Amino acid sequence: MSKxxxxxxxxxxxxxxxxxxxxxxxxxEDVAIDIKFAGICHSDIHTVRSEWKKTEYPLVVGHEIAGTxxxxxxxxxxxxxxxxxxxxxMVNSCRKCENxxxxxxxxxxxxxxxxxxxxxxxxxxxxxxxxxxxxVDQAFVLTIPESLPLxxxxxxxxxGITVFSPLNHWHAGPGKRVGIIGLGGLGHVAVKIxxxxxxxxxxxxxxxxxKELALQFGADTYVTTSDPKAFDGLGRKFDIIxxxxxxxxxxxxxxSSLRRDGSLIQVGVPPEPLQIPPFSLLPQRNGxxxxxxxxxxxxxxxxxxxxxxxIFPEIEVVPASYINEAYDRVVKSQVKFRFVIDVSTx
Length: 346
Ligand SMILES: [Zn+2]
Ligand SMILES: [Zn+2]
Description:
Elements: E1 3-12, E2 15-23, E3 30-39, H1 42-48, E4 65-72, E5 84-87, E6 90-92, H2 98-101, E7 112-113, E8 133-137, E9 142-143, H3 150-153, H4 159-169, E10 177-181, H5 185-196, E11 200-205, H6 211-216, E12 221-224, E13 238-243, H7 252-255, E14 258-266, E15 287-290, H8 296-309, E16 315-318, H9 323-331, E17 338-342
Parallel strand pairs: 10-11, 10-13, 11-12, 13-14, 14-15, 16-17
Antiparallel strand pairs: 1-2, 3-4, 3-8, 3-17, 4-5, 5-9, 6-7
Helix pairs in contact: 4-5, 4-8
The structure holds zinc ion (2 copies).
Protein name: Chaperonin 10-like protein
Family: Belongs to the zinc-containing alcohol dehydrogenase family.
Cofactor: Zn(2+)
């Protein structure tokens, strides 16, 4: 049977407020999840404010979902009632294309996002995690290891995989030098994961104010980019530079500090086009790439690594009544480092 559940929904670009929504009845492949925590991602804010594509109101956002299984469909083999589980940015895909078959469901042309997308199972618009309960196909549900607290696991489901996937794909690890631009919600997790993978890590940040934290998170080196001499002496040192900043960053100096075949990978989403002087790419066969979250198997690998190495995002747990204020603080960069909603307050 379908179920009416409590949620906090965007009723307009300006406001998120309590609303009851209906979740579909479980089909044979579905897992029902009692949500315990939901992270607040900057993408939620862009979507609520209709800044990326047209948003259908009312809409429940949230794609960093952690909770426990409360029921399973009859063909569900991966999960049992009571299991600790997570759901990230997607809830379905075609399962037939080459991207799906190769475990890169996030690049499926028919990938279904966790909110504001058409659900192929019932034709409704998908509703995200700022809610007590969700129904998701077992193929898109992740296991959260016992060693990861659910509140801290939530941000890993978007922020964590967003930085893990490029580090994994471009082979961060022992003997590799990784630069991370920005030490916010994405950047701080990137530092911890790159370090756990065995890389040498440098953080680039505009001011010196985050130096102590960066070193505490495991960074080996900290570069204050507002210093005119910041890049002097760096040479061509980096195998991978991950740009996590969603504002304009002059990329030329970063590209010129990549080794031969090194890559600059863009995960931040600034509003204006990137400016890339061609001569910063040519001399050492460097690349610039974009990347989007990660596949389901890769997301599980990231959660398992974070459980094993005890990698936790820095979070501030807030009640649902604080969501609107939290959004304002995220936009003003006044958050350290990720807000997580305590869903018991919904
Ligand atoms: Zn996100
Ligand atoms: Zn597909």
